[in-house]
Amino acid sequence: MVLGHIDAERNYELAKAAKHTVYGGSSFGFEDRNVLNEHEDELRELGVEVYNTPEANITLLRALIESPSTLLIAQ
After folding, report:
1. Long-range pairs of 7-13 with CB within 8 A, sequence gap ≥ 24
2. Per-residue tens of pLDDT for the chain, all 75 residues
3. What is the DSSP letter of 25?
4. CA atoms of 69 and 50, how far apart (whole Å)
5. Rounded to an integer, what distance in angstroms lies between the CA atom of residue 51 and that of residue 62?
6. DSSP 3-state percent helix, strand, coil across the chain (nearest 5)
7. How many CB atoms lie within 10 A of CB 31?
8. Residue 25 pLDDT
9. Cβ–Cβ < 8 Å for 30, 11
């Protein structure tokens, strides 16, 4: 399951609920601007795979720089 709602608090609640009901892998977007918020750490401790858009963009750009032919996969 991949989940990415614009509301970080809603993502947090949905991720906790889904972790207990979904079998298999799950990834959740978590983009809280409050760096003191510990929700992301709590989700990681629960075993939830957490991503955020800036990190995903950086990873994609790094892959494209290292292997430009990666772009051909998307076509």
Report:
1. 8/32, 8/33, 8/37, 8/39, 9/39, 12/39, 12/42, 12/43
2. 666 667 778 878 888 887 777 656 666 666 666 656 788 788 888 888 777 777 778 888 888 888 888 777 656
3. -
4. 27
5. 16
6. 50, 10, 40
7. 17
8. 61
9. yes
